[in-house]
């Protein structure tokens, strides 16, 4: 197996001076020494077998383009890959070309009668120079082109090193331009103008993709055929004459319908359908004979155009609405919205924000877990918690005492009087029956003396009696044995 390669000259795949050396890793290399600089060099590696040629280029299979900046040695390597081999170039004087740099484009072609301005296959003739009508878009126009078969390629800077061909599809169709592709073949059927355009705005030099070409053929319509129409009658339409180019088939003048004129047409006005009622199309009839020219047709009711009336969720304090719907055309309510009751607050258990005491009311704050609204309630003022009291002054039979109570919550005190001791003593006076002139002794007994230290004794008697004398003697000489306390109150 041999590999061949050509530098900036004719593609000679059988030049045995370019046989590459096979290496142990399966790659092939060849070293070149140049004695001057080259603006651009193009290489491919070719495998020859029984006069069949298989070509290899860069990772995309394209020609490897580079420049040599000066004298020196550079190496070409063909490395094995899944698709055969990938060709690369290395050397101190090697600069890989990554973009297509150019200043002119030529539309080079030949055909019957050398139609391109009398210039045949010459890539640099100024008569084939294209005009740059916008950035990287080039155009040339050829007038009075005769019928025939033609070939075309685009030469960059008037050189075949970079050229574009392709496959013509149809007039005015934008088509892929193929880098170093085959000649573009197309035909003209009669005298015409040919406008040729090459668009390089999206051309990628690395992939050699993105260029477009367009060939527009403008026929002069030198041979026109008239197709006769026919007149209208009472019930049938007619047609005007039409004109067609016999060269390209373009219809220059179209047939026009001549309406039938026998009937005197009256329009039967239709009516538009509504959401719930059918309508009628426009129709027509002849006002003379009554023949229906165009029957009216029933147009089905359109049905409601449903629009959703979006509901809203209820809140703690506001009612909500369910989803509903209405017709956007007639406004009829299709599904009424229903009121959703307000949910009411969901209060927590409350937090004491101010404690109540015996002198002040407190405050309890509640928060809603849904809307976070808060409310407060008054905590009633506490009642004093009085103890059982302490006697600060003992009562007597004649003077009240005093008891002091203390609140176990706040420490406040209050006093209340203690009533005098209850007088429980019992005074017993004996009952004596007397006659005038008798000396009477009345006995007094005092049981359970509550503290009586004096007695006031009143003696009452009828007016017919005269009290001659009163004497006190032997007071309580015979006290009852049950009296726990008897003493002489008059001493």
Please characterize this protein's 3D structure.
With 491 residues, the protein is mainly beta. Helices cover 0% and strands 41% of the residues. The chain contains no helices and 43 strands. The strands form 14 sheets. Strands 11, 14, 15, 17 and 18 form a 5-stranded antiparallel beta sheet that branches. Strand 37 and strand 38 form a beta hairpin. The N terminus and C terminus are likely disordered.
What proportion of the residues is helical, as a percent range? under 10%
* Intertermini distance: 168 Å
Mean pLDDT: 84
Main beta sheet: 5 strands, antiparallel
Shape: elongated
Class by helix and strand content? mainly beta
Radius of gyration equals 67 Å
Ranges with pLDDT <50 over ≥5 residues? 1-9, 476-491
**How many E-type strands?**
43
Q: What share of the residues does DSSP label as strand, in percent?
A: 35-45%
Q: How many DSSP helices?
A: 0
């Amino acid at each position: 197996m041999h590999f061949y390669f050509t530098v900036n000259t004719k593609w000679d795949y059988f030049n045995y001076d370019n046989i590459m050396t096979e290496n142990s890793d399966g790659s092939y290399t060849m070293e070149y020494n140049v004695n001057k600089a080259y603006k651009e060099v193009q290489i491919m590696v070719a495998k020859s077998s029984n006069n069949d040629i298989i070509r290899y280029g860069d990772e995309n299979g394209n020609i490897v383009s580079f420049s040599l900046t000066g004298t020196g040695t550079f190496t070409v390597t063909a490395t094995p890959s899944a698709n055969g081999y990938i060709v690369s170039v290395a050397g101190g004087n090697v600069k890989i070309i990554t973009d297509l740099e150019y200043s002119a484009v030529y539309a080079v072609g030949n055909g019957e009668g050398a139609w391109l301005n009398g210039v045949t296959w010459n890539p640099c003739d100024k008569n084939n120079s294209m005009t740059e009508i916008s950035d990287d878009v080039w155009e040339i126009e050829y007038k009075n082109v005769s019928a025939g078969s033609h070939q075309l390629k685009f030469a960059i800077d008037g050189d075949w090193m970079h050229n574009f061909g392709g496959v013509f599809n149809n007039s005015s169709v934008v088509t892929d331009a193929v880098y170093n592709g085959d000649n573009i073949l197309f035909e003209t059927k009669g005298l015409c103008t040919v406008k040729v355009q090459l668009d390089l705005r999206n051309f990628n030099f690395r992939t050699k993709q993105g260029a477009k070409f367009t060939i527009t053929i403008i026929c002069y319509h030198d041979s026109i055929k008239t197709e006769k129409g026919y007149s209208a009658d009472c019930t049938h339409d007619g047609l005007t004459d039409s004109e067609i180019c016999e060269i390209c088939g373009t219809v220059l003048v179209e047939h026009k319908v001549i309406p039938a004129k026998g009937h005197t047409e009256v329009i039967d006005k239709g009516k538009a359908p509504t959401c719930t009622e059918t309508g009628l199309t426009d129709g027509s009839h002849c006002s003379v004979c009554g023949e229906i020219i165009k029957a009216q047709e029933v147009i089905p009711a359109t049905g409601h155009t449903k629009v959703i009336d979006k509901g809203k969720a209820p809140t703690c304090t506001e009612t909500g609405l369910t989803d509903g719907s209405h017709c956007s055309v007639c406004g009829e309510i299709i599904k009424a919205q229903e009121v959703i009751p307000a949910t009411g607050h969901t209060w927590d258990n409350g937090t004491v924000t101010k404690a109540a005491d015996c002198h002040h009311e407190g405050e309890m704050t509640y928060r809603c877990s849904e809307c976070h609204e808060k409310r407060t309630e008054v905590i009633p003022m506490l009642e004093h918690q009085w103890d059982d009291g302490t006697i600060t002054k003992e009562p007597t039979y004649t003077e009240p005492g005093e008891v002091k109570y203390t609140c176990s919550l706040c420490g406040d005190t209050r006093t209340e009087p203690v009533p005098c001791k209850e007088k429980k003593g019992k005074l017993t006076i004996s009952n004596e029956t007397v006659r005038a002139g008798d000396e009477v002794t009345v006995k007094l007994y005092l049981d359970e003396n509550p503290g009586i230290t004096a007695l006031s004794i009143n003696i009452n008697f009828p007016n017919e009696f005269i009290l001659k004398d009163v004497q006190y003697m032997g007071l309580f000489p015979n006290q009852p044995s049950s009296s726990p306390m008897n003493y002489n109150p008059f001493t």
